[in-house]
């Protein structure tokens, strides 16, 4: 089952907001930016847009604001503007802030996957993993890309790695999709064994 744009936007919003509590890197503290982030936390993209748009007009070099704006554009199903905002964010977010840069690459990779721009999407997801190899969502998204490009073994490997990082990772849909297209019995057996393990984790 492919992720809808609305579901994707909500996923990106949740993942990006969680990054706020990560590394102790100096990030913007301007009033419009803070209020925009707070509005996103409260699930109010319209108010967030107002504040973040004001922030970008006043501080166009705030790459974090551009990245948040990409989430809002995506939520409004404006993929072109979302990609432009992510491009700007990657030009502006400091190289030292690996977690946010990873998330920006992840976000762009997911959007490019939706657009079936496979090579560029894979480059972004590879970079997201390089910058933040402990983020389960990076592997899940690359697994989705591999699945959609018939690279089933690689997709399964990424799902397996995601589960190694988090045994409760939500990969059920991807596992079921892989089971439906597994090209040989060996891969099918391994996918089935993984699915059975997921059932046991859910039960406990």
TrEMBL record:
Pfam families: TPR_1, TPR_8
UniProt keyword list: Repeat, Signal, TPR repeat
Domain of life: Bacteria
SMART domains in alphabetical order: TPR
Stretches forming TPR repeats: 102-135, 136-169
Signal peptide (from-to): 1-21
Protein name: Tetratricopeptide repeat protein
Organism of provenance: Bacteroides mediterraneensis
Taxonomic lineage of the native organism: Bacteria, Pseudomonadati, Bacteroidota, Bacteroidia, Bacteroidales
């Amino acid at each position: 089952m492919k992720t809808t744009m609305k579901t994707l936007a909500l996923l990106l919003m949740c993942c990006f907001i969680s990054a706020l509590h990560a590394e102790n890197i100096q990030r913007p503290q301007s009033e419009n930016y803070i209020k925009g982030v707070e509005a996103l936390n409260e699930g109010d993209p319209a108010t967030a847009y107002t504040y973040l748009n004001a922030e970008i007009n006043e501080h166009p070099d705030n790459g974090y604001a551009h990245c948040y704006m990409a989430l809002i554009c995506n939520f409004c199903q404006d993929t072109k503007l979302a990609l432009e905002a992510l491009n700007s964010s990657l030009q502006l977010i400091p190289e030292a802030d690996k977690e946010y840069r990873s998330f920006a690459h992840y976000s762009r990779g997911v959007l490019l996957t939706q657009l079936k721009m496979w090579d560029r999407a894979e480059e972004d997801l590879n970079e997201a993993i390089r910058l933040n190899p402990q983020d389960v969502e990076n592997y899940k998204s690359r697994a989705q890309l591999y699945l959609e490009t018939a690279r089933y073994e690689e997709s399964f490997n990424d799902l397996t790695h995601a589960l190694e990082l988090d045994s409760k990772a939500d990969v059920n849909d991807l596992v079921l999709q892989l089971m439906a297209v597994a090209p040989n019995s060996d891969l099918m057996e391994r996918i089935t064994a993984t699915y059975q393990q997921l059932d046991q984790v859910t039960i406990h």
